[in-house]
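seq:
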Amino acid sequence: MAASSIQDLLNFEAHFESAAVTFIAAGISSGFQVIGTLTETDLLTPRVEVALDLGEASLPVTRRQGGASPNTDDFVEYGAFWNIKLITDNAVGQTSDHATTRAKLREIFLWSGTNWNSTTLPYYDLKFIQPQECNYLTDEDFNVTELTWNLKFEIRDDAWPS
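struct:
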């Protein structure tokens, strides 16, 4: 499926975060607010915040459209990190949901998961996703777990706009 424009194709955060927000909202308790970086909201808990942090493009550059555009070289493979924050509030009794939801998030982001496909990410092929780190902290009444995953993805040959 071809993107409507180069800008749409290169709007990685919007496409990946939208897909992740959908998976997470469907996979965890309905009481959680699930938001991406493109959404501005008041801090309500419990919540899951989703961010795709783009990393380095991989060499070599490749001909667009799998060589169908012989005069245009571009990067097609990128590295990135998922940064997922799970926030609950002890003061209102949300602690019991924290560990369960953290485990569900890990399940949603499994490499073997069926979430990442051409329907949910029509412009990209997810090549690799690996858990990187899990940090837990408490701040006043808040419990916060920050989970990160390393990923590699590639722009599909048919995603380049005409």
